Amino acid sequence: MNANSPLTNVPRTAINPWLIAPLVALAAFMEVLDIAIANVSLRHIAGSLAASPEEATWILTAYLVTNAIALPVAGWMSEYFGRTRFFMACIFGFTVASMACGMATSLEMLIVFRALQGLAGGALQPVSQAILADAFPLEKRAMAFSVYGIAVVAAPAIGPTLGGWITDEYSWHWIFLINVPIGILLMVLIRRYVPDEPPKLERGRVDYFAFGLIALGLGSLQWVLDRGQHEDWFDSYEIILLSWVVVIALGMYIYRSLNQSAPIVDLKLYRSRNYAIGNVMMFILGVVLFGSTAMLPLFMQSLMDYTATDAGLVLSPGGLAIMFMMPVVGKLASHFDARALITVGLLVTAAALWNMGNLSLDASHETFTYARIWQMVGMSFLFIPINMLAYVGLPPTSNNQASSMLSLMRNLGGGVGISLLITFLARFGENNRAFLASNTSLVDPEWQAKLSEMTKIVGDPQRAMAILDHRLLQQAELLAYLEGFRILAFLFLILVPMVWWLKPFALHAEQNALPAH
Q1: How far apart are CA 436 and CA 474, in angstroms?
Q2: Is residue 428 situated within a structural domain?
Q3: Position 266 in a domain
């Protein structure tokens, strides 16, 4: 056990780390689930609150913007207020905000409470991971991270299905109210079983200007990612202005932090090769995980007329697969080179995504389900080994800061992946349609035969033409989706050489100090 662990002040026999692991993992699960669970309920929320579907998307934007602000500062806040106390305060805030969301009577109220929910919940992921990193000795850390991995990777997979079921069977209010009893239970148990950690930073020394730069830069970045496609990206003055805000605010913070001995977000951690590469990998993992989770339901709903619930049922078995595989990978990570496990995960997931790039409109529900399971089995080999290797070379005192940035990278990757893929689908679909239309001639014998055949079926030449045009549009969009899946596969393939730049994880060796260069 680390000398700086919060458990060192409590007798070892008094605390079983395996009582701590499911508690902090459940807190992270609750927060990650709320990112995905509301997506499928937007239409119901809009109808209930007399808002348009476009206005209802601000419910997601408000949460994501404040969540992005909270993530990187969670490590500093833990050290300033005391980690367990700060953790419980975040759970309390998240629970109260969830109750307020469930009781909201107008869209404006819901947006405000969702912003508060995202602000309070943003710290739950990184603080959970930091507690686990300190609570377990090195040789057991892989299994501990497997519990955490189940929470943060399975939640996006089952969120749409759970959200759709709760909304259909009860009402959209319960997708928020369900957090209340869970939050209360967590506060009671965490107070009982998770030891307190005293503050590490001197009170009164708060760099409010740095806080402002982080909030302005990351909040604007999340806004750009979430609203970019809707505003047509850089054809919008709003997006251009906010992009400049991102560059200036984050640039000023980077310069300021590198000249401080104790910055809010310690960028000097990136001097560690493993930590820097781990952050890149976590970013790409976020791109692929969240991007594919967004694309697959859209594929089925827009091209194959699946309902939201049916599309969610395709994703859920993948979530179950990763929940089963995480403990297996945790056990393997205790006996095999973590770099080999990452390589296996990248190759298996890339193969699964490439297979998705060969799907057709005739694919069955089972075909989609097995493709998703294949993908998630591969993803299960990534999360634990990447986290293990990212901490190699970092002093134990940096666990709070390190976990904050790893969580931020995964979430930012998700935001970037969803935004760019949705934009790609829209624009590549239009290009495909123009290309297919340019190669279709009304005097072409094959086209004439198709039109004649369809006219005989529907009895109206104009209706037959409309049906064929719709099929052309479907084929254009299908090609865009298939290319999108192949791009995700390629992203994982180019990571494979990078894996072997990582220093291996020595199970029975102490962690090294942070390199000076």
Answers
A1: 11
A2: yes
A3: no
